[in-house]
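Marked as duplicate of an earlier ticket. Keeping the data here for the record.
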Amino acid sequence: MNSEELSDLVVEALQDIKALDIVRLDVRDMTTVTDWMIVASGTSGRHVKALVDNVAEKAKAAGNRPTGIEGESGCEWVLLDLQDALVHVMLPKVREFYNLEKLWSIAPSGDAVATDG
């Protein structure tokens, strides 16, 4: 599975559990850490956890084991590292404060794709 297919899998897994405001950012020209940054919101800590769990489960089933998960204790912001895709799932107030989309969109070739979710 290439990185674009992985990012599609992540978006679909987030949509399955009704994530809000899913944004997929192509950061290949900005960093060597990852190819895709996917940001989404959950309505509560439990929803954030369910979203991350669903993405991790679908990624594992497709042969992409997460290399790390951070922030599960509070579930206000959980980061799921799939190497070629970093998944940030946050409560809306946390997402608004950190505004990762703006930070990672500052590039000449930044490709931000908002998806309905």
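See parent ticket for discussion. The chain has a mean pLDDT of 89.
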